[in-house]
## 1
Amino acid sequence: EILMTQSPATLSVSPGERVTLSCRASQSVGTKLGWYQQQPGQAPRLLIYGASTRATGVPARFSGSGSGTEFTLTISSLQAEDSAVYYCQQYDKWPPFTFGPGTKVDIK
Amino acid sequence: QVTLRESGPALVKPTQTLTLTCTFSGFSLSTGGMSINWIRQPPGKALEWLARIDWDDDKYQTPSLGMRLVVSKDTSKNQVFLTLTNMDPLDTGTYYCARAVGYGLDAFDTWGQGTMVTVSS
């Protein structure tokens, strides 16, 4: 089973600032990596798939990069509605599909 | 428009069997590559993938639940079912179904709103 880790666990950021979230896989997953946003009380929403492709309707301020074991989700200019927990997920070697523990982004 | 909706009991007793239904629209599970996945989330915790059923009836599940979990489908009714036996308070959480379109695009592109299940006597 591939173990996914994320850092930091939480961060507090002012609106307009750039945010960088990290995700690491315990072994290479190529670019079979997705990022999900879960706002409070809501279901997760796919933001990024294939490590760097934005899902339909996702604002351009969200971008993903990386391959192998190291991945990054960047929010170029944080908006108030971006307050959420962000999860990465690998879908290269499954079952099981595995998620990271999440990074909580708070707005200052 | 692709939509999914989970339904089932909100409260089950320990040792009972849970059956959840995922009813979907906007696509067909008979389309090549399509799959429906079940994911759960204990309160305040991370997401855990449970099971997947493919368009061709291939099935996959997390090893951690062993023989407790069964996934099935009724393609004609656009429904997928999750059965989890011998429920325990540790199974408490929100259960989601989500679609993947497959052929390498196995990220979960559309999710249901989730259904909260509490296991308590």
## 2
Amino acid sequence: GIQVEQSPPDLILQEGANSTLRCNFSDSVNNLQWFHQNPWGQLINLFYIPSGTKQNGRLSATTVATERYSLLYISSSQTTDSGVYFCARSEKLVFGKGTKLTVNP
Amino acid sequence: EPEVTQTPSHQVTQMGQEVILRCVPISNHLYFYWYRQILGQKVEFLVSFYNNEISEKSEIFDDQFSVERPDGSNFTLKIRSTKLEDSAMYFCASRTLSKGIIYGYTFGSGTRLTVV
């Protein structure tokens, strides 16, 4: 089946730092999304990005479908960025295990 | 921005009882989904629903589960006889396809089901 691997599994940052989260996937199905799960468990859609680059404020994402990976960039991190970041792939969304991000003040 | 609405946000039920989790997808969306997340684990696909029928379901979605779109706006997940291992956060999601463009999923805030 489709495999989605995320790295790193855990990341601790000081407020203001930048970070890059990575998602590798095993297939070439044309669908990828990034989500942020906040401490209350809500899944917030960040990007729908099957290919190319998108930016939204301090966040941006790039997917290189031919090389089967996607990157999520967080710049000038804030404590409210803490939570778990998931990427998900394929038409029925196969999720990775997530990257748990902790941003300390 | 349009939202997917789920109710209740938290439900506690006794083992063996039936529960119905409710979702109101975005009004012009055509595809509907249920996912679940056991505490500390990955989000897992349960079922997809299109054109008033199930289009795909996972191994988790056994005979104890059913879905329904009773009135054109609500989308429900029923668990007939809950087990302890059904305790999880259940997410509803919807998406649409318009003029050949597939749009991304929008998730609801989830229902945390606790079976005791």
